[in-house]
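hiii so um. not sure if this is the right channel but i have a protein structure encoded as tokens and i wanna go backwards to a sequence. like what aa goes where. can anyone help
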């Protein structure tokens, strides 16, 4: 009998972050504010980059992609979590769980690849500035963007393919606030050791390799900055520091969760909160508040909007 036909579970129960009604209400308010800030913050970055032609460079092209992925990544899990805070029984259908896992890993893996590409972009800009626009031309940027999305799709399909082919006949409780591959395969009615090793080899290896590549890239950048002028060195270091902060927060979760077999730790949920909600919120803060070009472009956009509104006021009064 095929493994799919042995699956009797039609829905899963998400344990969530808390079972206390008062705590859940407090968490609902907190994460609602966080989610709205994610949408607004990343949305402003995308609109500002699109509107200001001075930001139509490879760096900001990838940064707008990062903001888009962060919005999608948080939307996969946070709205469902918010809804579950207001219910007693937190259930998700088998199909909904599979869909959530697919898009979670699609956006997460794509972001890992994007962060790696952004490190390469900074390496070329800082270490080979004379040929930067030649190396990172529009065609290359589009090709890199397409490649990372394709890589994320292949990665996600591989994980979901391994997961849905397992038989699920109970139990149904997922020890988290969203569906993810490690806690789901623990519920399978079969030995999953081989699958767990494959997941570690897939997700864990991708995370570790990309992290090593990123660290090496920034190591080379830091060495090359020794002979730069103070102002140029300060700006480059600021950009690299912002990028490394995002990388550490995001890849830290991936390495912690996916570089080991499916063993639950009490810290898993806390780490998952940072992965799904906090990191997408920090990205616009880090890149906007630490980036002079973004701040100037944002102020320019706001001034233009205020000017346009003042221009329309006399016309509306006529």
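sure thing!! here u go:
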């Amino acid at each position: 009998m095929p493994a799919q036909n042995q699956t009797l579970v039609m829905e899963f129960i998400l344990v969530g972050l808390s079972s206390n009604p008062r705590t859940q209400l407090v968490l609902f308010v907190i994460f609602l504010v966080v989610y709205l800030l994610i949408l607004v913050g990343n949305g402003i970055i995308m609109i500002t980059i699109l509107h200001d032609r001075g930001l139509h460079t490879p760096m900001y092209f990838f940064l707008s992609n990062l903001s888009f992925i962060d919005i999608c990544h948080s939307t996969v899990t946070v709205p469902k979590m918010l809804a579950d805070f207001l219910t007693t029984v937190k259930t998700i259908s088998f199909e909904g769980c599979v869909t959530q896992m697919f898009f979670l890993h699609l956006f997460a893996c794509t972001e890992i690849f994007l962060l790696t590409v952004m490190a390469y972009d900074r390496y070329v800009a800082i270490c080979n500035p004379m040929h930067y626009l030649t190396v990172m031309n529009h065609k290359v940027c589009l090709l890199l963007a397409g490649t990372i999305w394709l890589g994320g799709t292949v990665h996600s399909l591989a994980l979901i393919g391994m997961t849905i082919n397992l038989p699920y006949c109970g139990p149904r409780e997922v020890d988290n606030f969203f569906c993810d591959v490690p806690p789901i395969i623990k519920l399978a009615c079969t030995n999953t050791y081989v699958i767990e090793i494959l997941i570690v080899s897939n997700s864990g290896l991708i995370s570790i390799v990309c992290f090593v590549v990123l660290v090496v890239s920034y190591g080379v950048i830091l060495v090359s900055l020794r002979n730069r002028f103070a102002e140029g060195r300060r700006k480059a270091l600021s950009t690299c520091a912002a990028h490394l902060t995002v990388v550490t927060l995001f890849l830290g979760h991936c390495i912690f969760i996916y570089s080991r077999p499916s063993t639950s730790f009490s810290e898993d949920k806390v780490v998952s909160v940072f992965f799904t909600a906090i990191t997408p919120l920090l990205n616009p803060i880090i890149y906007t508040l630490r980036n002079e070009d973004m701040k100037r472009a944002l102020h320019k956009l706001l001034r233009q909007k205020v000017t346009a509104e003042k221009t329309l006021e006399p016309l509306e009064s006529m």
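oh and The domain at 3-295 is CATH 1.20.1070.10 (Rhopdopsin 7-helix transmembrane proteins).
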